[in-house]
Write a structure and sequence with these properties.
The chain is globular, with a radius of gyration of 17 Å. The protein contains 8 helices and no strands. Helix content is 68%, strand content 0%. The longest helix is centred in the middle third of the chain and has 23 residues. It has 2 domains: 78 residues, Rna Polymerase Sigma Factor, Chain: A (Orthogonal Bundle), CATH 1.10.1740; 84 residues, Arc Repressor Mutant, subunit A (Orthogonal Bundle), CATH 1.10.10.10.
């Protein structure tokens, strides 16, 4: 479980969009997994089981937040200071742009992009983790990539190179 924590943290960050909430979700998922370790079936993927636990906890938390409202700490909104240097600054600006663009995507798209593009999961692994048909994973991922590209490169949308993502 300890070796898997960085992957789980990336996954939970994709769900929450906030490092503190992601860390809390990782902790909750680990507590839940340890408390119910007898429910894990040997021969199945431990990672998929943990991803599912974290996603279910997140869904439960979102449902309960609807009745209480969302709390966001103002201190979490301040971006950390970067190191000096043009390259570092450019990289951070790009990362911020990607992070902001990712947050405008649907939760399904964010989770898929994180699992496949950031964490390196195969389409099959992502399909198993999210309990979706592989064709659905492929089409959602294609739309997510297209939408992210359109958000990061609006001139490509204007030139007709990328279709605009219309969520609704």
């Amino acid at each position: 479980m300890v070796a898997f924590l960085p992957r789980l943290r990336r996954f939970t960050y994709a769900l929450t969009g906030d490092f503190a909430s992601a860390d809390d979700l990782v902790q909750d998922a680990c507590v839940r997994a340890l408390a119910h370790r007898d429910q894990w079936q040997p021969g199945t993927k431990f990672e998929s089981w943990m991803f599912r636990i974290a996603q279910n906890l997140w869904i439960d938390k979102k449902r309960s937040a609807k009745s209480r409202g969302v709390h966001q700490d103002i201190d979490d909104m301040v971006e950390p200071m970067g190191e000096d240097g043009r390259v570092v600054t450019d990289q951070r600006l790009t990362l911020v742009a990607v992070a902001k663009a990712m947050q405008t995507l649907s939760e399904d798209q964010r989770v898929l992009l994180t699992l496949v593009c950031v964490d390196g999961a195969s389409y099959k692994e992502a399909a198993e983790t999210l309990n979706l048909p592989i064709g659905t994973v492929m089409s959602r991922l294609a739309r997510a990539r297209q939408a992210l590209h359109g958000l990061l490169m609006p001139e490509a949308v204007d030139a007709g190179l990328v279709k605009e993502n219309r969520r609704g």
